[in-house]
Recover the amino acids of this structure.
């Protein structure tokens, strides 16, 4: 059996996560699988919205959409997908810890199904690993660990390859023309955070920073989904050189626009991880979350985190009602960081 698998290349089915940032970080697992299992093929079961991200990952051979609403069991859809995948994969890696996320590999009859113990998945997984949060203290470590032998991850010192999303330069050019963007060096701003307002730097701070950046010769591009349009208006209204692109681009477009920016200023969000994965310099602002747990996977990042005594609380809304962890990070700090990075880049080259 092992010789047959080696001859044809093992076939992995990965059940992916449900958040943009987590899906980007899952690429570290895909890279790890390709390194340790040369010639393997990787299929990823994931929500339909993630298909544009998976399409930019060279390691993913097949993106398999699962049309189930967030929080829904979706039994019929999972059963149908499991039946469609029967006989096509040798191993399954289940990244989410929920019971329902392990259903498709089980229903597909995949022989080896691995994941962390959680929600009584004893019948659904046949290799269940205990999650040691002290050792696997980052989301990306937990993903990569499931692609390695258990003994190899016991110390937590295994490699974590950085995600790298492909960039479509032709689409970049089309987007610059379609949205009237200039040739000035661009700073991307991502004021949204789907998790909740306790991760969102104040819009007034973003607006003041945008004003300062324009005065320093930058173009500012505010990026986000349809739900961020009002935030983008608050930042950009009446400011020449500040473009509100929230809700006006697809996820694939955001990948290319972020790659076209000199730097980004961002909350701890999915688009922060996208920016890191296209090699753009990241100025990352953390409030209720922790940069130790979900850092941008890049050497080109500066973290802005106060670490006051009530943080990180990991809450969607500030339980104390003041959000000091964010409001007390002034716009001047971010402006100085952007300008210092620009100066360092010019000095190098």
């Amino acid at each position: 059996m092992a010789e047959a698998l080696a001859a044809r290349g093992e076939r992995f089915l990965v059940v992916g996560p449900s958040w943009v940032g987590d899906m980007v970080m899952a690429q570290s697992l895909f890279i790890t699988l390709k390194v340790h299992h040369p010639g393997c093929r990787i299929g990823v079961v994931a929500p339909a919205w993630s298909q544009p991200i998976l399409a930019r990952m060279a390691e993913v051979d097949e993106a398999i959409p699962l049309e189930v609403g967030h929080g829904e069991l979706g039994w019929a859809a999972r059963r149908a997908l499991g039946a469609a995948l029967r006989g096509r994969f040798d191993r399954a890696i289940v990244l989410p810890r929920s019971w329902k996320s392990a259903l498709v590999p089980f229903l597909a009859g995949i022989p080896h199904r691995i994941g962390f113990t959680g929600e009584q998945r004893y019948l659904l997984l046949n290799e269940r690993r205990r999650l040691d949060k002290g050792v696997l203290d980052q989301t990306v470590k937990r993903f990569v660990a499931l692609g390695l032998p258990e003994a190899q991850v016991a110390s937590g010192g295994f490699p974590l390859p950085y995600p790298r999303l492909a960039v479509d330069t032709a689409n970049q050019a089309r987007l610059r023309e379609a949205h009237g963007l200039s040739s000035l060096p661009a700073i991307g701003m991502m004021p949204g955070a789907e998790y909740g307002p306790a991760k969102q730097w104040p819009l007034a701070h973003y607006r003041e920073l945008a004003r300062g950046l324009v005065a320093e010769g930058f173009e500012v591009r505010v990026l986000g989904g349809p739900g961020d349009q009002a935030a983008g208006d608050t930042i950009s209204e009446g400011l020449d050189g500040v473009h509100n692109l929230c809700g006006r681009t697809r996820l694939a477009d955001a990948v290319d626009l972020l790659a076209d920016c000199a730097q980004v200023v961002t909350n701890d969000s999915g688009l922060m991880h996208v920016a890191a994965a296209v090699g753009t310099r990241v100025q990352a602002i953390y409030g209720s979350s922790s940069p130790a747990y979900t850092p941008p996977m890049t050497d080109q990042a500066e973290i802005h985190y106060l670490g006051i005594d009530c943080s990180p609380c990991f809450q969607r809304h500030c339980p104390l009602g003041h959000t000091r962890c964010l409001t007390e990070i002034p716009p001047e700090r971010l402006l100085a960081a952007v300008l210092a990075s620009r100066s360092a880049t010019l000095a190098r080259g």
User: Anything to note?
Assistant: Residues 250 and 284 are 22 Å apart (CA to CA). The first strand starts at residue 11 and ends at 15. Residues 1-7 have pLDDT under 50 and may be disordered.
